[in-house]
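Researcher: Batch entry, complex prediction.
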Amino acid sequence: MAKLATIYIMGKEYKVPSTLTILQAIEASGFLFIRGCGCRGGFCGACSTVYRTKDSYKLKVALACQTKIEDGMFLAQIPFYPGNKATHNLSQIKPTTETLCALYPEIMRCISCGSCTKVCPQDIKVMDYVNAAIRGDYKKIAELSFDCIMCGLCATRCPAEIVQYNVALVARRIYGAHVMKKAQHVDKRLDQMKENQFASEIEELMKSSVDQLKERYTKRDMEK
Amino acid sequence: MYPKEFQESIKKVEATRQARMTQQFPMLSLADRTILLEAYHPDYKKGTMRQISVGVNKGDKTPHEFANLFEAYSHINPNNFTIPSPKYETDVLIIGGGGAGVAAAIVAKQAKANVFLVTKLRVADANTTMAQGGIQAADKENDSPAIHYLDVVGGGGFKNIPELVRALVSDGPEVIRWLEELGVIFDKAPDGTMLSIHGGGTSRKRMHPCRDYTGAELMRCLKDEFLDQKIKYLEYTGALELLKDSDGKCVGAVLVNMENGEVFTVKAKTTILATGGAGQLHIQGFPTSNHYGATADGLVLAYRSGAKLTFLDTIQYHPTGVGYPEQILGQLITEKVRGVGAQLVNADGERFIYDLETRDVVSSAIIREIQDRKKGIMSVTSGGVWLDTPLIEMKSGSGTILKQLPAMHRQFIKFGIDMTKEPVITYPTQHYQNGGILCNEYAETNIPGLYVAGEVTGGVHGRNRLMGNSLLDILVFGRRAGTHAAELAAKTTEVKPGTINHVKKYHSELEKAGIPKERKSPMLLPDYRPKEFQDRYSFLSHLK
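Model: Structure tokens for the complex:
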């Protein structure tokens, strides 16, 4: 039996095995998640949690599914954040400096306090990409923000009310769709598909017996 | 840092690393694959399955965990339940907010249909978001959809449904172009050429990654487009039953608001089920790499309404789930880790399988190594084998892991393990539902008006899916479902009232088979609370 730890879920005391993650500890305390739990693997940002440990005034954040509990932890989840998302028509949009400022004028209110960077559970340099957004440096935003899981913690701490993750998302989409080059080999293949180049070969495979398929499969040449 | 008991074994892994770097390890022949699978793959383990006693697939074998959901009563009692008049009416109803459902929604909306999407968690809360390593598509010069076809059926044990495989491989290049246009940032050379790698069982490097956040990147772009298209949706809304009219056509669904318990209906000209997989069933007690919502709900709803299921006796166990530390047990270590050069080795630092065999084969080999050859590393759980990750840095240069596998690095460093310097411990984890609802290449089921897409379907991957073919599958069939459901909706002028007479009929079958009354499905959410807290979920408790 693992040692027990004392945690405080929204202020109320519970004792749970000390080896659990925050997510498991909340469940072990008898709570059923409807909100506040998603992929359970660190990819979806559903379980962002704010906590404080005993004898400290500092507020810390974590993904509940990726963080082991500590004895004396006071914790609360942020299951929803009413952040603004500007809608747009991606195919019509241009990768200019004005675009992001027009979609999200509040980025100009950034006071470079760094709260967003400090709070990010993915250790993303959020403030740096907001600054890149003001400059219209799409490549920089894409590079810096790519590992964002859109948990929303940055927006909760922003004194300028910027919804950083949505700014980054539209910037990345613009970068992907309008700045990065399209793969030419995809164009070529699409042309070939239009001419039905592979249809008869596939049909022949569909008609093949299992033994014929096995023979062809075994004889495949493997790309090194 | 690992505890002391693993240190000796780590030294052995380090001692053999240099020699292993250039060592060629042979692939198995098809015959040897079969021998290994039959001896060690969990699908072949005795006593883990039973025949379904009711419904269309009566007599077919399936894991007990699936059978328990099929042999179960509806949350609503069809004898005293008055179907509420529709709260919403739509052309196309989509149940499920993952990659398949959202792709279907975007395409159906573009085809001028009214679309209404419901999901029991948030839009994008799905296994799609957790897919890491890449998406397959035969779009390079040395590749072709026909070569892709052969890889798919070879991986699936030559059992796949040919028409579905043709659809999968033929739509691949178009799907990649669609994603580029949606703004997905693939790993590319400056001239736009995709950087592509191998997955287990591929004969060409056709895996297109976005670092190791491929699914997350695809899903967030799809979701953003979905929101830009202003498609109507409701979150935290579970599906309890499908509605069928007097002609047997699917005309919507009975839904529940999971926060206040309100039960309501949506009337729809066509319905798309895209509810995903079943990892949260923990088949045979395996841990899972799957999302919180992966509870097989769509299978249950479709089955009760008379849809035929297929390949119910095969589950994919991903060879490399996390085996240590226990906090993240069963979470996925992407196949890309092997794709870029890591090797599986036993406690003595020896290789025991070619690393890019298909998943079913590699999982079986790991189980053999631990169970029979006793060369596993005994950790807090069932044990595991090493995945020698520092080899990646040795082969491709220092910094490769941070650049290509940032999510994996993050996952382990949070628990004090630096995979650039230390190997990681791995064990198979329940990953994918190979089987599901039978459909044709237009995503149609045997129920008129009911379409399906994504992991909830069965047949395209046969008995084993290849890496990167699920992201492709959800988009190929999501788009097809969206197109065809919108087409049929456009031709539909009148929607007759929906009934749950099919549930009544199903219940009488259950009673005849002597199924205990307290067994209910769909599951909607897994219950991880301690036993003494487990009861009927509060949002269902008013349903008698």
